[in-house]
Amino acid sequence: MSRKKENKRMFSKRFEKAAFKTAVKENVKTLYRKTIDEATPQQLFQAVSYAVKDVIIDDWIETQKRYDETDAKTVYYMSMEFLMGRALGNNLINMTAYKDVKEALEEMNIDLNVIEDEEPDAALGNGGLGRLAACFLDSLATLNYPAYGCGIRYRYGMFKQKIENGYQVEVPDNWLKEGNPFEIRREEYAKEVRFGGNIRFEKDPVTGKDKFIQENYESVMAVPYDMPVVGYGNHVVNTLRVWDAKPITDFKLDEFDRGNYHKAVEQENLAKLIVDVLYPNDNHYSGKELRLKQQYFFISASLQALIAKYKKKHGDIRKLYEKVVIQMNDTHPTVAVPELMRLLIDVEGLSWDEAWEVTSKTCAYTNHTIMAEALEKWPIDLFSKLLPRIYQIVQEIDRRFVIQVRETYPGNEEKVRKMAILMDGQVRMANMAIIAGFSVNGVAKLHTEILEKQELKDFYQMMPEKFNNKTNGITQRRFLAHGNPLLADWITSKIGDGWITDLSQISKLKPLVEDEEARREFMEIKYQNKVRLAKYIKEHNGIDVDPRSIFDIQVKRLHEYKRQLLNILHIMYLYNQIKEHPEMSFYPRTFIFGAKAAAGYLRAKETIKLINSVADVVNNDRSINGKLKVVFIEDYRVSNAEILFAAADVSEQISTASKEASGTGNMKFMLNGAPTLGTMDGANVEIVQEVGEENAFIFGLSSQEVINYENNGGYNPVDIYFNDWEIKRVVDQLMDGTYSNGDHNMYINLYNSLLNTQCTDRADTYFILKDFRSYADAQKRVEEAYRDQQKWSKMAMLNTACSGKFTSDRTIEEYVRDIWHLEKVEVPSGQDLFD
Ligand SMILES: Cc1ncc(COP(=O)(O)O)c(C=O)c1O
Q1: pLDDT tens digits along 505-523
Q2: Pick from 28, 232, 423, 564: CA 20 to 30 A from residue 665's CA?
Q3: Which of 342, 556, 609, 659 is labelled catalytic?
């Protein structure tokens, strides 16, 4: 870097406190006609955010200018979900201005934490998949890579969860109610997206080329909103582009006839509906037409926009892949494949082969699950009616691929049956993504292995060069620097702040594990974080929890495969033991849950009710002297997740082995010094590899054992039920009224899922009873380890010290090296902070 540039960069770190305070005051005045003292906390949040955005804008402009000048290749990360959480605090961290702003606000009698709490989470996602997309954007910007996130600006994000009488109640998340200070509407980039109708075919009389004309369609305008994605300390600002819909307004309604009027109303309704709400299913395909509309809507708009941008600079669309790479986050955006083909053939005039060359060199696919119920398979009827031209293209992709399969495996129709896109009246989106994409990746070593050896075996055999692994990661900027400031400062005091952009440096903490004073400090910070969480629990749940007890936390979406039921059944078992043997030594435990259930997912909702009912009974039983507490955190989301990870002693990662593709919550707990209590599933395997099995609590069937059982018709839980009276007692307590005020039916679906007295599917498909004893043993080991505080503090610290691999910076560098092939772009400072 030149000396001049370096000076500029250093100078830009100077925070102009006076200028910032003036900006906030001015904003309060112009936005609300108020003084600082009169403004509400929400108004102060807005005023502060606009002041921050002012600075971001200059870097944003400068970044985009640099990208343009350097003509750098860009990744477009296509995702139905971006679980961003709050922006203000994270932006300040990444601008390296958090402490300065906090101090400046304090001088104005404003508490930054209070202001931050005024910001609603941008909850445009369900869970791990959406949060991964958000972490990736943070890493891409921090690592100086040109990138766009492309998604949908849902008017209602993930529903807010209220707990009423122990049951989950879903409340709409009107997150845009007060306005989003960080977004910018880009009307000038609006694109039309068409649905339905029919396709008329004609030959162009001049060129003689085939033309496909869509008629009688409905259409909407897609209007983008851009949100800044601030890199850490490097002045890079990338863009998250989310699409809103508005009706097409060029009807002449003053001279309207009935037909037009109806069409106008229909298009208005379509526009309203299409971006109205995020489907709240995690790892589960819902098959709804509106969902497919959402997918095509944001994909078509994003592709039109990226092609327009590319053409403005380059002209020759045949070389698109040299400057653009499209990463499809799961199958949700895979309609990008035929849509890109359509745009290249029908609009750009390329031949099929030319279009295929471009498409198959531009698109890459990430697989997120092997669970059958999560794989998208659209009924052909629905698909072809909604997207008639796209369906024609899918048919042609399929026809050509099937020929290839038959050539490769003559006479083997089983291969065609397994790999074709169109089969049994369905469009299989994963197959299309694999066939068209140049890269197929799993999200943890074990997951990729299972894909290659089992689920996608046929594809792997035919095209092994496409397959690769990219173990997920998380951003330490949000989940340590912002979420756990005490630990972040302590780490910086010990090893410097290099870890913020190079997490491998966190291994420098390893020698300190032998330093008793360092361990004491580490545990004191954990204690302070537990006090912070205890305060949150008191405020939100009205429950007193003792920060000296073991904080054992399971927070994630509620799903049978994640086995919250195993956790709560084990708590019921512990409670029975404590009641029966009051003299038994038992280290006080606080079990903390947080989980949203998809609105229609009955067993998941029953599990929430069960957790809350057990909490009621246990927390109010004075005879156990507070040895056991159970807490259900309402409305688990990114903002309270940050508080939970920081305060955890034990990280519950107890999915049925083979079911959790990676997990990312597991990494956040590890980073914050919580050993994993888990199965050898997903990225847990790699966590254990990094930290050593002796610093985790591993239990349960292996993925191979689970798969073997599954291939042989499952196992019989009834044997366990009748041979282990303690397990039987716990299962019976689901039905005997202990946790339901005498209602014998409240948990009948859970009971049946375990023993299959009524269900049509197999019993205990998630091996809860099978793994129960092994889990209980592991929990005993946790307790013993915790009693030895010296030993525990070493384990906890080692988890933090060994978490370097799990930064999303590492993941992104691997995507860049193996799939995207991007170049870093340096950006000079656009403006001195608040100067
Ligand atoms: C709010 C939120 N939801 C869901 C997840 C995913 O959690 P898990 O990987 O445990 O399923 C995370 C963490 O990654 C998160 O922060």
Answers
A1: 999 999 999 999 999 999 9
A2: 232
A3: 556
pLDDT band of 3, cuts 50, 70, 90: very low
Residue 392 β-bridge partners: none
Would the ipTM clear 0.85, i.e. be above it? yes
Residue 656, Cβ neighbours under 10 Å: how many? Answer: 25
Same domain for 490 and 408, yes or no, is no
Task: Report the C-alpha gap between 623 and 581 in whole angstroms.
Answer: 11
Q: Find, among 650, 648, 651, the residue nearest to 525 by Cα.
A: 648
Q: What is the CATH number of the domain that holds 621?
A: 3.40.50.2000
For residue 120, the 8-state DSSP code is P
Q: Is residue 716 part of a domain?
A: no
The pLDDT tens digits for 670-718 are: 999 999 999 999 999 999 999 999 999 999 999 999 999 999 989 999 9
206 shares its domain with 225: yes
Residue located via tokens 């912070």: 532
Specify the residue with its C-alpha closest to ligand 1, atom 8.
665
Is-catalytic flag, 475? no
DSSP code at position 444: S
Domain that holds residue 190: 71-86+121-159+181-472
Q: Return left, alpha or beta for 22; rule: phi > 0 is left, psi -120 to 50 is alpha, else beta.
A: alpha
pLDDT tens digits along 268-309: 899 999 999 999 999 888 889 999 999 999 999 999 999 999
Looking at residue 1, its pLDDT comes to: 37
Ligand 1 in contact with 293 (CB < 6 A)?
no
Given the residues 332, 562, 570, 627, the one annotated as active site:
562
Instruction: Note the pLDDT of residue 332.
Output: 97
pLDDT at 605 over 80: yes
pLDDT at 10: 36
CB of 659 within 6 A of ligand 1: the answer is: no
CA-CA distances (angstroms) from residue 230 to 103, 182, 761?
21, 11, 48
Same domain, yes or no: 418 and 524: no
Residue at 303 is within a domain: yes
What pLDDT, on the 0 to 100 scale, is given for residue 833?
Answer: 55
User: Which residue lies with its CA nearest to atom 11 of ligand 1?
Assistant: 556
Torsion angle of C-alpha atoms 525, 526, 528, 534, degrees rounded to 10: 170
Statement to judge: residues 341 and 421 lie in one domain: yes
650-653 and 676-678 beta bridge pairing: parallel
Regarding the beta carbon of 153 and ligand 1, being less than 6 Å apart is answered no
Query: Residue 143 pLDDT > 50, yes or no?
Result: yes
Pairing mode, strands 122-124 and 82-85: antiparallel
Dist CA 404 CA 394 (whole Å): 15
Verify whether residue 664 is a known catalytic residue. Answer: yes
Catalytic site includes residue 155:
no
- Is residue 556 part of the annotated active site? The answer reads yes
End-to-end CA gap in the chain: 23
Question: How many structural domains is the chain composed of?
Answer: 2
Query: Does residue 482 have an active-site annotation?
Result: no
Indicate whether 429 pLDDT > 80.
Answer: yes
> How far does Cα 276 stand from its chain's mean position?
20
Beta strands in 331-484 (DSSP E): 363-366, 377-379, 422-423, 426-428, 439-442, 467-469
* Judgement on whether residues 465 and 562 belong to the same structural domain of the protein: no
